[in-house]
Design brief:
Elements lengths: L24 E8 L9 E8 L3 E6 L6 H8 L7 E6 L2 E2 L5 H7 E4 L11 H6 L12 H14 L14 H13 L5 E5 L7 H18 L2 E5 L3 H7 L2 E6 L3 E6 L1 H4 L2 H8 L1 E8 L2 E9 L3
Helix pairs in contact: 4-5
Bound molecules: adenosine-5'-triphosphate and magnesium ion.
């Protein structure tokens, strides 16, 4: 049953972050149902992200990971429960207030923009000047392209890139606005192993050095286990079944139940490492 909406703040009050810039995100009993469906795809979601860190969501295909992250930045409005950003119910926030602080890198699709890479990245900038690209925007774009090692692609057409290069452009677009929180849907999916490691280390570094909350979905259990401060496990029927540091979460029992697969978990410098066996059924 839908709970009555109790505003968290008075009308006219405007949203901002505290002086230290720290964001906090809290999901309280969140459920989400797609239009026309009888049952919610995620439900009973309680989650607190109240300090900087790299948080990795893992779980099988179709369990609701992408649906969940879109509930945080208001792309999906929960059908039950609420999402609080620094104590504000997101129903009281404008989408642009949320977008000001939360960068979002969706799962990459083969976009067919023909614009140059630099322009595709600048689309993510929140310029002080509404119509013009400022020098500051250009500096930021150059900085993030350097971070991802793609400055040589800046004038290439976006539709002339490989899947991994698209992925890097999408991450640049999320980073250019200097978000306090960055949400990424499978940011390493199309990357080769070197770049998977590089990008995940970069994201961990951003969390540690810039105090950012980085929330990413990953299907690579070993990359998640190696770099995440915390793992969030989603399991059927669209619930969070466990959260915690990788060494507490990634166990043989959990992984074999979650994915219906044989596996061994060994230790690699104190971090769990999953050695996959056979799938039990499909
Ligand atoms: N726009 C939509 N309308 C209706 N159902 C949807 C929609 N988007 C997703 N779903 C359904 O919601 C469920 C959760 O989907 P979601 O994309 O959140 O899963 P996921 O955990 O991100 O999966 P994957 O690992 O494959 O990306 C799935 O059963 C999916 O078919
Ligand atoms: Mg998904």
């Amino acid at each position: 049953m839908a709970v009555r909406f109790e505003p968290t703040h008075a009308k006219g009050e405007s949203f901002d972050l505290p002086a230290d810039g720290q964001m906090t995100v809290e999901l309280q009993d969140v459920a989400f149902k797609y239009r026309g469906m009888d049952q919610p795809v995620i439900s009973g979601i309680n989650l607190s992200l109240n300090k900087p860190g790299l948080y990795c969501i893992v779980g099988p295909n179709g369990v609701g990971k992408s649906t969940l992250i879109k509930c945080i930045n208001k792309l999906n409005m929960p059908s039950e429960g609420r999402v609080l950003i620094n104590g504000w119910d997101t129903r009281e926030l404008k989408l642009k207030d949320v977008a000001r602080f939360i960068g979002y890198v969706p799962v990459t699709t083969m976009d067919v923009f023909s614009m140059p890479v630099i322009d595709a990245i600048l689309l993510g900038a929140k310029s002080e000047s509404k119509w013009k690209t400022t020098d500051n925007d250009l500096e930021k774009a150059t900085r993030v392209m350097k971070m991802l090692g793609i400055e040589d692609l800046s004038m290439r057409g976006f539709n002339q890139l490989s899947a991994g290069q698209h992925q890097k452009v999408a991450i640049c677009r999320g980073l250019i606005q200097d978000p306090k929180m960055l949400i990424l849907d499978e940011p390493t999916a199309n990357l080769d192993v070197k770049h998977q490691v590089y990008v995940t280390e970069l994201l961990r570094g951003l969390a540690e050095d810039s105090g950012m909350i980085v929330l990413m979905i990953s299907h690579d259990l070993n990359v998640a286990a190696k770099y995440a401060h915390e793992i969030i496990v989603m399991s059927p029927p669209g619930v969070i079944s466990k959260t915690g540091p990788p060494e507490e979460v990634i166990t043989e029992d959990l992984i074999s139940d979650l994915y219906d697969i044989e596996c061994k978990v060994t230790s690699d410098e104190g971090r769990p490492h999953v050695v996959l066996g056979s799938a039990r059924s499909i």
